[in-house]
Amino acid sequence: MVKDSKMNPSPFLSLRGISKSFRAVKANDQVDLDVYRGEVHALLGENGAGKSTLMKVLYGFYHADSGEVRLDGKTVHIRSPHDARRLRIGIVFQDFVQVPALTVAENIALFLPDLPVVLDKLDILKRIGEISHRYSLAVDPRAPVRQLSVGERQKVEILKLILADAQILILDEPTRSLALHEIEGLFRVFANLRRDGYAVVFITHKLKEVLTCADRITVMRRGKVTGTLAGSEAIETRLVSLMFEEEVRETSRIERTRAPGGVEPILQLRGVHTSGEGGAVGLQDIDLAVLPGEIVGVAGVSGNGQRELGDVVLGLERCSKGEKYILGQEATHWSVARARANGLAFIPEDPLGMAAFPWLTVQENMAMADTRRYSRKNGFSMDWVAVCADLDQSLQRLGFTIPSFFVPLATLSGGNVQRMILAREMAHNPKLIIAFYPTRGLDVRSAVAARELLIASRDAGAGVLLISEDLGELFVMSDRLVVIFRGRIVKSCPPQETNPNEVGHLMTGSGQ
Fold first, then answer.
1. Contact criterion met (CB below 8 Å) for 201 and 210
2. Exposure string for 102-113, b = 16+ CB within 10 A, e = fewer
3. Which among 208, 243, 278 is the end of a domain?
4. Which residue pairs from 266-269 have beta carbons closer than 8 angstroms and sit at least 24 positions apart in sequence?
5. Over pLDDT 70: what percentage of the chain?
6. DSSP state of 408
7. Taking a C-beta distance cutoff of 8 angstroms, is the pair 398, 422 a contact?
8. pLDDT surpasses 50 at 261
9. At 393, is the secondary structure helix, strand, or coil?
10. CA 20 to 30 Å from 124, out of 81, 335, 438, 456?
């Protein structure tokens, strides 16, 4: 139900003239935004459009250079997240702030503003039970958080905000790691929150989800608001035109004939096990091959062995049992450097944490991926012209832009960091590509370009191991699809022989 002036004479929350710059980059430029009670308000925009920065200003994580925030018509000053929580503003970040060893109830209790010196566990359990029932947020309050699925952990974050009496709930990319049936469950939670007058701000790149659940949609481009539409009046083409200045094409499924028999795999794992130390999921009896000119998609909820699978291939994790072959060579004990020297590219799920140096510049991060290629005079100098030329050529091939090659990587938006890593890893035509969620955090246009580049690499003979929780992406991209649950492959077939609902249930263990 879209809010109108008769039902809501004034907004619950108003942002007026919000501007925020980071050095030469203007992330927010005179942004106005209104949010009403009892609505789900979607915030859309391409990478670097300023969405997350705007919400971090609202939450007190950043301080605006200019502008004001009004709550119930009164100007408020938010200097820290503590101020935001006091004003009943809460946020669920993409990376959850939880203590895995503690129970659900203990994690929630730590967040409460009225936490007593002596915790009344029965009272906490009662309050969690009441809120869980009312808002369809069922989760075992006595379970350790480390045992929960991603969808259940997200419910814990929402419970934390509701029990802390937040009235404005901001969710940043909340569906990125959820199976299809979990996304449908999240939208039911949104409907229940709307019913009771909560204001929900929903940041996502997935247009179909926005059109499914949003009452109003605000679109940003290059730090400015380009339009706000009623959800009932919005259509995908109109939203895309507000997000981008040119038409965006979609990636369509391209059917591939199976590679002829006898072709040697680019990657082969035979009976691979890992130890599962430090609380990680151990792989168990993994048999997997990736052929030249093939994309093998790996579906699974976070924490079920996908990361360990990629780490084994890359050489970050050792096999406790079994064998690994790359390009026909026995590679069970290869180092990461040797694997990369043999044509392996790695697109990580956490670019800043796993594949980059945050405080080095963009061009320096490009050079660090292959210093031998760019070093001159026996390593005493670097050919920075060649570094920038290769990066620029790769970015152009992807259709990406980056604000500057000469700023620290950490100052870029998450989407621009992902763009840079994609461009770097794909710059020299790798033979085997290990891609962890390659379009996570990317806007529609950038995601399409990344997918098309992976398809082009496949068509040129590369093998691709595509690990993702986006079932739509996997079904469009994959020539063969495997599902992993608790360290085991529980299904392997062409995507045409299954469907997203079956895979979603297998991913969460409810289909076995």
1. no
2. ebbbbbbbebee
3. 243
4. 266/290, 266/291, 266/292, 266/326, 266/327, 266/431, 266/432, 266/462, 266/463, 267/313, 267/324, 267/325, 267/326, 267/432, 267/463, 267/465, 268/324, 268/325, 269/312, 269/313, 269/322, 269/323, 269/324, 269/325
5. 89
6. B
7. yes
8. no
9. helix
10. 81
pLDDT at 512 over 60: no
pTM recorded for the entire structure: 0.61
Tell me the residue type at 355.
A
The residue among 103, 104, 105, 81 whose CA lies nearest residue 91 is 81
Q: Under a CB-based contact definition with an 8 Å cutoff, are residues 379 and 332 in contact?
A: no
Cα–Cα distances in angstroms (integers) from residue 196 to residues 128, 129, 138, 189, 477, in the given order: 17, 17, 18, 11, 40
Residue 443: CATH number of its domain? 3.40.50.300
For the chain, the domain total comes to 3
- pLDDT (0 to 100) of residue 465: 95
Residue 95 CB partners (closer than 8 Å, separation 6+) = none
Examine residue 135 and state whether it is found in any structural domain, yes or no.
Answer: yes
- CB burial class (10 A; 0-12, 13-18, 19+) of residue 19? middle
- CB within 8 Å of 75: residues ≥ 6 apart: 68, 69
Same domain, 283 and 361: no
| In the predicted structure, residue 98 carries a pLDDT above the cut 60 | yes
Asked if residue 33 lies in contact with residue 53, where contact means CB atoms within 8 angstroms, the answer is: no
Whether 136 is covered by a domain: the verdict is yes
Q: Which of 243, 272, 303 is the last residue of a domain?
A: 243
On whether both 77 and 191 belong to a single domain, the answer is: yes
Q: What is the pLDDT of residues 308-365, one digit of tens each?
A: 898 899 888 889 999 999 999 999 999 988 888 888 988 877 677 677 788 889 899 8
Give every CB contact of residue 378 below 8 A, 6+ residues apart in sequence.
none
479: Cβ contacts below 8 Å, ≥ 6 apart? 256, 258, 294, 295, 296, 458, 494
**206/175 same-domain check:** yes
